Amino acid sequence: MTDDSTGLLARTAAWIARLIAEPERARRAYPAALLVLTLLIWFPALFTGLDAPSQDAFYHITQTALHHTPGDVAHWFVRGHWAYTHYEYRPLTRLSLLVDYLIWGRWLLGFHLTNVLLHFLCALTLAAVLVRAGAPIWAARLSGSIAVVFPPGQMAVSWTNGRQDVLCSALLLAAVFFFLNWLAGRPWPHLAAAALFTIASALAKEPGAVAPLFMLAALFLVPSQRRLWQRLGGVALIAVLLIPYLCLRLRAWPVDQYIQQNAAQLRPLGTSARWFVSHLLAPRIYELATYWRQQGVYILFSRDLPVRLLEQAAFWAALVVLVRRRRRLLALGVAWKLVFFLPVHNLYWNPAFTHYRYLPHLGTAWLVGLAAWELSGYAAARLGTRRPALARGPILVLAIPVLLWYYCAQLPLRWPGWSVIARGGLAPPTSFCRDLQGPDAPYPFDDSTIYPPDQ
Protein backbone atom coordinates (compact mmCIF):
# COMPACT_ATOMS: atom_id res chain seq x y z
CA MET A 1 0.00 0.00 0.00
CA THR A 2 1.40 3.37 -1.00
CA ASP A 3 1.95 6.26 1.35
CA ASP A 4 -0.76 8.26 -0.45
CA SER A 5 -3.40 5.55 0.01
CA THR A 6 -2.36 5.06 3.63
CA GLY A 7 -2.71 8.77 4.24
CA LEU A 8 -6.12 8.84 2.56
CA LEU A 9 -7.36 5.97 4.73
CA ALA A 10 -6.04 7.69 7.83
CA ARG A 11 -7.75 10.96 6.92
CA THR A 12 -11.02 9.14 6.15
CA ALA A 13 -10.84 7.28 9.46
CA ALA A 14 -10.16 10.52 11.31
CA TRP A 15 -13.10 12.20 9.54
CA ILE A 16 -15.48 9.35 10.48
CA ALA A 17 -14.26 9.44 14.07
CA ARG A 18 -14.82 13.21 14.28
CA LEU A 19 -18.25 12.91 12.68
CA ILE A 20 -19.39 10.30 15.19
CA ALA A 21 -17.84 12.15 18.11
CA GLU A 22 -19.15 15.54 16.93
CA PRO A 23 -22.51 14.86 15.25
CA GLU A 24 -23.30 18.57 15.09
CA ARG A 25 -21.01 18.70 12.04
CA ALA A 26 -23.81 17.01 10.07
CA ARG A 27 -26.58 19.30 11.34
CA ARG A 28 -27.21 20.81 7.90
CA ALA A 29 -26.45 17.70 5.85
CA TYR A 30 -28.87 15.36 7.65
CA PRO A 31 -32.16 17.12 6.74
CA ALA A 32 -31.08 17.38 3.10
CA ALA A 33 -30.06 13.71 2.99
CA LEU A 34 -33.31 12.67 4.67
CA LEU A 35 -35.33 14.69 2.16
CA VAL A 36 -33.52 13.06 -0.76
CA LEU A 37 -34.15 9.61 0.74
CA THR A 38 -37.84 10.42 1.24
CA LEU A 39 -38.28 11.63 -2.35
CA LEU A 40 -36.45 8.60 -3.75
CA ILE A 41 -38.55 6.14 -1.78
CA TRP A 42 -41.91 7.80 -2.42
CA PHE A 43 -41.34 9.25 -5.90
CA PRO A 44 -43.74 6.79 -7.62
CA ALA A 45 -46.48 7.69 -5.10
CA LEU A 46 -46.71 11.12 -6.71
CA PHE A 47 -48.26 9.60 -9.82
CA THR A 48 -50.87 7.25 -8.35
CA GLY A 49 -53.81 9.54 -9.04
CA LEU A 50 -57.03 8.93 -7.10
CA ASP A 51 -57.12 6.44 -4.26
CA ALA A 52 -58.61 3.64 -6.33
CA PRO A 53 -60.63 1.63 -5.49
CA SER A 54 -61.56 3.92 -2.58
CA GLN A 55 -63.89 6.85 -3.24
CA ASP A 56 -62.42 8.96 -0.43
CA ALA A 57 -60.07 11.13 -2.51
CA PHE A 58 -62.67 11.91 -5.16
CA TYR A 59 -65.30 12.72 -2.57
CA HIS A 60 -63.29 14.71 -0.02
CA ILE A 61 -61.21 16.76 -2.46
CA THR A 62 -64.15 17.48 -4.75
CA GLN A 63 -66.37 18.47 -1.87
CA THR A 64 -63.65 20.73 -0.51
CA ALA A 65 -63.07 22.34 -3.90
CA LEU A 66 -66.77 23.03 -4.46
CA HIS A 67 -67.51 24.47 -1.03
CA HIS A 68 -64.81 26.83 0.17
CA THR A 69 -66.37 30.21 0.83
CA PRO A 70 -65.24 31.88 4.09
CA GLY A 71 -68.53 30.81 5.62
CA ASP A 72 -67.89 27.19 4.67
CA VAL A 73 -64.42 27.23 6.22
CA ALA A 74 -65.78 28.80 9.41
CA HIS A 75 -68.51 26.13 9.44
CA TRP A 76 -65.86 23.38 9.34
CA PHE A 77 -64.36 24.70 12.58
CA VAL A 78 -67.64 25.50 14.34
CA ARG A 79 -69.79 22.55 13.35
CA GLY A 80 -67.69 20.14 11.30
CA HIS A 81 -68.30 18.99 7.73
CA TRP A 82 -70.61 16.47 6.18
CA ALA A 83 -68.92 13.25 5.08
CA TYR A 84 -71.00 10.55 3.42
CA THR A 85 -73.60 9.89 6.15
CA HIS A 86 -72.37 11.86 9.17
CA TYR A 87 -70.57 14.94 10.36
CA GLU A 88 -66.80 14.75 10.82
CA TYR A 89 -64.71 17.17 12.82
CA ARG A 90 -61.27 17.28 11.20
CA PRO A 91 -61.32 20.86 9.96
CA LEU A 92 -57.55 21.30 9.65
CA THR A 93 -57.30 18.27 7.37
CA ARG A 94 -60.12 19.65 5.26
CA LEU A 95 -58.43 23.07 5.17
CA SER A 96 -55.13 21.52 4.04
CA LEU A 97 -56.92 19.87 1.11
CA LEU A 98 -58.48 23.20 0.22
CA VAL A 99 -55.07 24.91 0.26
CA ASP A 100 -53.75 22.15 -2.00
CA TYR A 101 -56.64 22.69 -4.39
CA LEU A 102 -56.06 26.46 -4.47
CA ILE A 103 -52.37 25.83 -5.29
CA TRP A 104 -52.54 22.80 -7.58
CA GLY A 105 -56.08 22.78 -8.92
CA ARG A 106 -56.97 19.40 -10.41
CA TRP A 107 -53.32 18.27 -10.62
CA LEU A 108 -53.28 15.31 -8.22
CA LEU A 109 -49.48 15.16 -8.09
CA GLY A 110 -49.52 18.25 -5.85
CA PHE A 111 -51.80 16.57 -3.31
CA HIS A 112 -49.49 13.55 -3.15
CA LEU A 113 -46.42 15.78 -2.90
CA THR A 114 -47.88 17.44 0.19
CA ASN A 115 -48.32 14.02 1.81
CA VAL A 116 -44.73 13.05 1.00
CA LEU A 117 -43.35 16.29 2.44
CA LEU A 118 -45.44 15.87 5.60
CA HIS A 119 -44.01 12.36 5.90
CA PHE A 120 -40.51 13.84 5.65
CA LEU A 121 -41.35 16.35 8.40
CA CYS A 122 -42.60 13.51 10.61
CA ALA A 123 -39.32 11.61 10.22
CA LEU A 124 -37.20 14.73 10.77
CA THR A 125 -39.17 15.82 13.84
CA LEU A 126 -39.10 12.28 15.25
CA ALA A 127 -35.30 12.47 15.23
CA ALA A 128 -35.42 15.87 16.96
CA VAL A 129 -37.83 14.53 19.61
CA LEU A 130 -35.52 11.61 20.32
CA VAL A 131 -32.59 13.96 20.82
CA ARG A 132 -34.65 16.08 23.22
CA ALA A 133 -35.61 12.90 25.09
CA GLY A 134 -31.93 12.09 25.67
CA ALA A 135 -31.02 9.76 22.79
CA PRO A 136 -27.62 9.99 21.06
CA ILE A 137 -27.90 12.21 18.00
CA TRP A 138 -26.89 9.54 15.52
CA ALA A 139 -29.33 7.06 17.08
CA ALA A 140 -32.07 9.64 16.65
CA ARG A 141 -31.09 10.25 13.03
CA LEU A 142 -31.11 6.52 12.38
CA SER A 143 -34.67 6.34 13.76
CA GLY A 144 -35.69 9.18 11.47
CA SER A 145 -34.21 7.37 8.45
CA ILE A 146 -36.09 4.19 9.35
CA ALA A 147 -39.34 6.12 9.80
CA VAL A 148 -39.06 7.32 6.19
CA VAL A 149 -39.36 3.80 4.78
CA PHE A 150 -41.38 2.09 7.51
CA PRO A 151 -44.13 -0.11 5.97
CA PRO A 152 -47.16 1.44 7.75
CA GLY A 153 -46.38 4.64 5.90
CA GLN A 154 -47.49 3.07 2.61
CA MET A 155 -51.17 3.99 2.69
CA ALA A 156 -50.83 7.12 4.82
CA VAL A 157 -48.29 8.64 2.42
CA SER A 158 -49.51 7.40 -0.96
CA TRP A 159 -53.24 7.93 -0.39
CA THR A 160 -54.47 11.50 -0.44
CA ASN A 161 -56.98 10.46 2.21
CA GLY A 162 -54.01 9.58 4.42
CA ARG A 163 -53.51 13.34 4.82
CA GLN A 164 -55.27 13.18 8.17
CA ASP A 165 -52.65 10.75 9.53
CA VAL A 166 -49.46 12.41 8.31
CA LEU A 167 -50.75 15.90 9.18
CA CYS A 168 -51.84 14.86 12.67
CA SER A 169 -48.52 13.07 13.26
CA ALA A 170 -46.40 16.02 12.08
CA LEU A 171 -48.27 18.47 14.33
CA LEU A 172 -48.24 16.10 17.29
CA LEU A 173 -44.48 15.51 16.99
CA ALA A 174 -43.99 19.28 16.93
CA ALA A 175 -46.08 19.53 20.13
CA VAL A 176 -43.96 16.90 21.87
CA PHE A 177 -40.77 18.59 20.65
CA PHE A 178 -41.73 21.93 22.23
CA PHE A 179 -42.98 20.23 25.38
CA LEU A 180 -39.62 18.48 25.85
CA ASN A 181 -37.90 21.80 25.23
CA TRP A 182 -39.96 23.29 28.03
CA LEU A 183 -39.12 20.39 30.35
CA ALA A 184 -35.43 21.05 29.65
CA GLY A 185 -35.78 24.57 31.02
CA ARG A 186 -36.70 26.59 27.94
CA PRO A 187 -39.04 29.56 28.58
CA TRP A 188 -42.83 29.36 28.81
CA PRO A 189 -43.50 30.18 25.12
CA HIS A 190 -42.32 26.64 24.38
CA LEU A 191 -45.16 25.29 26.53
CA ALA A 192 -47.58 27.59 24.71
CA ALA A 193 -46.30 26.26 21.38
CA ALA A 194 -46.76 22.69 22.65
CA ALA A 195 -50.37 23.49 23.55
CA LEU A 196 -51.08 25.11 20.18
CA PHE A 197 -49.60 22.23 18.20
CA THR A 198 -51.50 19.72 20.34
CA ILE A 199 -54.80 21.45 19.56
CA ALA A 200 -53.84 21.67 15.90
CA SER A 201 -53.05 17.93 15.77
CA ALA A 202 -56.45 17.15 17.28
CA LEU A 203 -58.08 19.38 14.66
CA ALA A 204 -56.38 17.22 12.02
CA LYS A 205 -57.43 13.89 13.56
CA GLU A 206 -58.74 12.65 16.89
CA PRO A 207 -55.57 10.88 18.23
CA GLY A 208 -54.00 14.29 18.77
CA ALA A 209 -56.40 14.78 21.68
CA VAL A 210 -54.66 12.06 23.73
CA ALA A 211 -51.23 13.73 23.44
CA PRO A 212 -51.38 14.88 27.12
CA LEU A 213 -51.23 11.20 28.13
CA PHE A 214 -47.88 10.81 26.37
CA MET A 215 -46.65 14.09 27.84
CA LEU A 216 -47.63 12.78 31.27
CA ALA A 217 -45.38 9.75 30.67
CA ALA A 218 -42.60 11.98 29.34
CA LEU A 219 -42.52 14.23 32.40
CA PHE A 220 -41.63 11.20 34.54
CA LEU A 221 -39.26 9.51 32.05
CA VAL A 222 -37.30 12.47 30.67
CA PRO A 223 -34.87 14.33 32.97
CA SER A 224 -36.22 17.82 33.59
CA GLN A 225 -35.18 21.09 35.17
CA ARG A 226 -38.79 21.80 36.15
CA ARG A 227 -40.28 20.94 39.50
CA LEU A 228 -42.88 18.20 39.63
CA TRP A 229 -45.77 20.57 40.25
CA GLN A 230 -44.69 22.68 37.26
CA ARG A 231 -44.53 19.64 35.00
CA LEU A 232 -47.93 18.39 36.12
CA GLY A 233 -49.34 21.89 35.76
CA GLY A 234 -48.03 22.15 32.19
CA VAL A 235 -49.71 18.91 31.15
CA ALA A 236 -52.93 19.94 32.95
CA LEU A 237 -52.91 23.27 31.11
CA ILE A 238 -52.68 21.54 27.73
CA ALA A 239 -55.47 19.14 28.70
CA VAL A 240 -57.73 22.01 29.81
CA LEU A 241 -57.13 23.90 26.56
CA LEU A 242 -58.38 20.81 24.69
CA ILE A 243 -61.83 21.03 26.34
CA PRO A 244 -63.31 23.41 23.70
CA TYR A 245 -62.08 21.04 20.99
CA LEU A 246 -63.70 18.06 22.73
CA CYS A 247 -66.99 19.93 23.07
CA LEU A 248 -67.04 20.81 19.37
CA ARG A 249 -65.94 17.31 18.39
CA LEU A 250 -68.65 15.59 20.41
CA ARG A 251 -71.25 18.03 19.11
CA ALA A 252 -70.24 17.37 15.50
CA TRP A 253 -70.33 13.60 15.87
CA PRO A 254 -71.61 12.25 19.22
CA VAL A 255 -70.00 9.07 20.49
CA ASP A 256 -73.30 7.18 20.72
CA GLN A 257 -74.01 8.02 17.07
CA TYR A 258 -70.58 6.80 16.05
CA ILE A 259 -70.96 3.56 18.02
CA GLN A 260 -74.37 2.91 16.46
CA GLN A 261 -73.10 3.53 12.95
CA ASN A 262 -69.83 1.57 13.27
CA ALA A 263 -70.84 -1.24 15.60
CA ALA A 264 -69.42 -3.86 13.26
CA GLN A 265 -65.93 -2.33 13.38
CA LEU A 266 -65.60 -1.71 17.11
CA ARG A 267 -63.38 -3.99 19.16
CA PRO A 268 -63.47 -4.81 22.88
CA LEU A 269 -60.57 -3.43 24.91
CA GLY A 270 -59.21 -6.93 25.50
CA THR A 271 -59.05 -7.55 21.75
CA SER A 272 -57.35 -4.19 21.26
CA ALA A 273 -54.73 -5.07 23.89
CA ARG A 274 -53.97 -8.45 22.30
CA TRP A 275 -53.74 -6.89 18.85
CA PHE A 276 -51.41 -4.24 20.23
CA VAL A 277 -49.05 -6.83 21.75
CA SER A 278 -49.05 -9.18 18.77
CA HIS A 279 -48.74 -6.65 15.96
CA LEU A 280 -47.24 -3.48 17.37
CA LEU A 281 -45.23 -4.23 20.48
CA ALA A 282 -43.59 -7.55 19.64
CA PRO A 283 -43.58 -7.96 15.85
CA ARG A 284 -43.75 -11.54 14.52
CA ILE A 285 -43.67 -13.16 17.99
CA TYR A 286 -47.35 -14.04 17.95
CA GLU A 287 -47.16 -14.93 14.27
CA LEU A 288 -44.36 -17.43 14.78
CA ALA A 289 -46.19 -19.13 17.66
CA THR A 290 -49.36 -19.34 15.58
CA TYR A 291 -47.53 -20.98 12.69
CA TRP A 292 -45.96 -23.49 15.06
CA ARG A 293 -49.41 -24.48 16.39
CA GLN A 294 -50.72 -24.90 12.86
CA GLN A 295 -47.76 -26.64 11.24
CA GLY A 296 -45.94 -28.35 14.09
CA VAL A 297 -42.57 -29.74 13.08
CA TYR A 298 -43.33 -29.00 9.41
CA ILE A 299 -42.58 -25.36 10.12
CA LEU A 300 -38.91 -26.37 9.79
CA PHE A 301 -39.48 -26.74 6.05
CA SER A 302 -41.09 -23.32 5.67
CA ARG A 303 -39.21 -20.89 3.48
CA ASP A 304 -40.15 -18.08 5.88
CA LEU A 305 -38.65 -19.75 8.96
CA PRO A 306 -35.07 -18.36 8.63
CA VAL A 307 -36.36 -14.83 8.26
CA ARG A 308 -38.72 -15.21 11.21
CA LEU A 309 -36.02 -16.71 13.43
CA LEU A 310 -33.65 -13.89 12.48
CA GLU A 311 -36.34 -11.36 13.37
CA GLN A 312 -36.86 -13.00 16.74
CA ALA A 313 -33.12 -13.05 17.46
CA ALA A 314 -32.76 -9.39 16.50
CA PHE A 315 -35.84 -8.40 18.48
CA TRP A 316 -34.75 -10.08 21.72
CA ALA A 317 -31.11 -9.00 21.39
CA ALA A 318 -32.21 -5.40 20.87
CA LEU A 319 -34.65 -5.62 23.78
CA VAL A 320 -31.95 -6.90 26.15
CA VAL A 321 -29.53 -4.14 25.11
CA LEU A 322 -32.17 -1.43 25.49
CA VAL A 323 -33.26 -2.72 28.89
CA ARG A 324 -29.65 -2.61 30.07
CA ARG A 325 -28.66 0.75 28.57
CA ARG A 326 -31.68 2.83 27.53
CA ARG A 327 -34.51 1.91 29.88
CA ARG A 328 -36.05 5.39 29.91
CA LEU A 329 -36.06 5.71 26.14
CA LEU A 330 -37.36 2.15 25.78
CA ALA A 331 -40.24 2.92 28.14
CA LEU A 332 -40.95 6.20 26.33
CA GLY A 333 -41.02 4.46 22.92
CA VAL A 334 -43.43 1.82 24.22
CA ALA A 335 -45.55 4.60 25.76
CA TRP A 336 -45.74 6.27 22.35
CA LYS A 337 -47.06 3.08 20.76
CA LEU A 338 -49.46 2.43 23.63
CA VAL A 339 -50.88 5.93 24.08
CA PHE A 340 -51.61 6.52 20.41
CA PHE A 341 -53.16 3.11 19.87
CA LEU A 342 -55.37 1.91 22.71
CA PRO A 343 -57.36 5.07 23.56
CA VAL A 344 -58.46 5.59 19.97
CA HIS A 345 -58.72 2.00 18.78
CA ASN A 346 -62.23 1.37 20.05
CA LEU A 347 -63.80 4.58 18.75
CA TYR A 348 -61.79 5.82 15.78
CA TRP A 349 -59.87 2.82 14.50
CA ASN A 350 -60.52 0.50 11.61
CA PRO A 351 -57.76 -2.16 11.71
CA ALA A 352 -58.37 -3.00 8.07
CA PHE A 353 -56.65 0.18 6.93
CA THR A 354 -52.92 0.38 7.57
CA HIS A 355 -52.80 4.17 7.39
CA TYR A 356 -54.44 4.24 10.83
CA ARG A 357 -51.31 2.56 12.21
CA TYR A 358 -49.00 5.32 10.99
CA LEU A 359 -48.87 7.28 14.24
CA PRO A 360 -48.22 4.40 16.70
CA HIS A 361 -45.74 2.78 14.34
CA LEU A 362 -43.53 5.87 14.52
CA GLY A 363 -42.76 4.49 17.96
CA THR A 364 -41.52 1.30 16.32
CA ALA A 365 -39.11 3.29 14.15
CA TRP A 366 -38.04 5.07 17.37
CA LEU A 367 -37.16 1.74 19.03
CA VAL A 368 -35.60 0.11 15.98
CA GLY A 369 -33.21 3.01 15.34
CA LEU A 370 -32.24 3.20 18.99
CA ALA A 371 -31.68 -0.56 19.19
CA ALA A 372 -29.58 -0.57 16.00
CA TRP A 373 -27.37 2.15 17.44
CA GLU A 374 -26.86 0.32 20.73
CA LEU A 375 -26.23 -3.03 19.06
CA SER A 376 -23.62 -1.48 16.78
CA GLY A 377 -21.88 -0.01 19.83
CA TYR A 378 -22.06 -3.37 21.59
CA ALA A 379 -20.47 -5.09 18.57
CA ALA A 380 -17.82 -2.40 18.11
CA ALA A 381 -16.73 -2.63 21.74
CA ARG A 382 -16.05 -6.35 21.31
CA LEU A 383 -14.02 -6.18 18.13
CA GLY A 384 -10.83 -5.68 20.10
CA THR A 385 -10.21 -2.24 18.67
CA ARG A 386 -8.93 0.65 20.71
CA ARG A 387 -11.34 3.01 18.98
CA PRO A 388 -14.90 1.59 19.28
CA ALA A 389 -16.36 4.85 17.96
CA LEU A 390 -14.42 4.38 14.72
CA ALA A 391 -15.47 0.74 14.41
CA ARG A 392 -19.09 1.71 14.93
CA GLY A 393 -19.10 3.67 11.66
CA PRO A 394 -18.46 0.72 9.28
CA ILE A 395 -20.94 -1.43 11.23
CA LEU A 396 -23.67 1.16 10.75
CA VAL A 397 -22.66 1.72 7.12
CA LEU A 398 -23.34 -1.99 6.54
CA ALA A 399 -26.41 -2.16 8.79
CA ILE A 400 -28.31 0.85 7.45
CA PRO A 401 -28.76 -0.50 3.87
CA VAL A 402 -29.83 -3.86 5.33
CA LEU A 403 -32.42 -2.21 7.57
CA LEU A 404 -33.72 0.04 4.83
CA TRP A 405 -33.90 -2.86 2.36
CA TYR A 406 -35.77 -4.93 4.95
CA TYR A 407 -38.41 -2.28 5.44
CA CYS A 408 -38.68 -1.39 1.75
CA ALA A 409 -39.17 -5.08 0.92
CA GLN A 410 -42.20 -5.17 3.20
CA LEU A 411 -43.92 -2.19 1.60
CA PRO A 412 -47.03 -3.35 -0.29
CA LEU A 413 -46.02 -1.27 -3.29
CA ARG A 414 -48.55 -0.81 -6.07
CA TRP A 415 -46.81 1.93 -8.00
CA PRO A 416 -47.83 2.88 -11.56
CA GLY A 417 -45.63 1.87 -14.47
CA TRP A 418 -42.99 4.12 -16.01
CA SER A 419 -45.27 4.92 -18.93
CA VAL A 420 -47.82 6.40 -16.50
CA ILE A 421 -45.11 8.32 -14.66
CA ALA A 422 -43.71 9.66 -17.94
CA ARG A 423 -47.04 11.26 -18.84
CA GLY A 424 -47.43 12.86 -15.43
CA GLY A 425 -49.53 10.28 -13.63
CA LEU A 426 -53.09 9.10 -13.83
CA ALA A 427 -55.50 11.83 -14.86
CA PRO A 428 -58.62 12.36 -12.75
CA PRO A 429 -62.10 12.12 -14.31
CA THR A 430 -63.45 15.26 -15.93
CA SER A 431 -65.93 15.69 -13.08
CA PHE A 432 -63.17 15.78 -10.46
CA CYS A 433 -63.34 19.02 -8.44
CA ARG A 434 -66.23 20.19 -10.61
CA ASP A 435 -69.31 18.05 -10.21
CA LEU A 436 -70.25 14.93 -8.32
CA GLN A 437 -72.74 13.85 -10.98
CA GLY A 438 -72.67 13.17 -14.69
CA PRO A 439 -71.52 10.33 -16.97
CA ASP A 440 -67.83 10.82 -16.16
CA ALA A 441 -68.23 10.67 -12.37
CA PRO A 442 -66.56 7.48 -11.10
CA TYR A 443 -69.02 7.05 -8.22
CA PRO A 444 -72.82 7.43 -8.17
CA PHE A 445 -73.08 10.47 -5.95
CA ASP A 446 -76.14 12.67 -5.76
CA ASP A 447 -77.06 15.72 -3.71
CA SER A 448 -78.27 13.61 -0.80
CA THR A 449 -74.72 12.34 -0.28
CA ILE A 450 -73.23 15.85 -0.31
CA TYR A 451 -75.49 17.69 2.10
CA PRO A 452 -76.81 16.63 5.48
CA PRO A 453 -80.53 15.91 5.69
CA ASP A 454 -81.37 19.23 7.37
CA GLN A 455 -79.89 21.37 4.58
Explain the overall architecture.
It is a single chain. With 455 residues, the protein is mostly helical. It has one domain. The chain has 23 helices and 2 strands. The protein has a two-stranded antiparallel sheet. Helix 2 (29-42) crosses helix 6, helix 10 (189-204) runs parallel beside helix 12 (228-241) and helix 11 packs antiparallel against helix 18 (327-339). The chain starts with a helix and ends in a 5-residue tail after the last helix.
Helix content: 55-70%
Sheet with most strands: strand arrangement: 1-2
Number of helices: 23
Please tell me how large the radius of gyration is. 24 Å
By DSSP, the count of extended strands is: 2
End-to-end distance: 83 Å
Task: Give the topology, please.
Layout: H1 3-21, H2 29-42, H3 56-66, H4 70-78, E1 81-83, E2 86-88, H5 91-104, H6 108-132, H7 137-148, H8 153-158, H9 163-183, H10 189-204, H11 211-221, H12 228-241, H13 243-252, H14 255-261, H15 269-281, H16 285-295, H17 305-325, H18 327-339, H19 342-348, H20 358-381, H21 388-410, H22 418-422, H23 447-450
Antiparallel strand pairs: 1-2
Helix pairs in contact: 2-6, 2-7, 3-5, 5-6, 5-10, 6-7, 6-9, 7-20, 9-10, 9-11, 10-12, 11-12, 11-18, 17-20, 18-20, 20-21
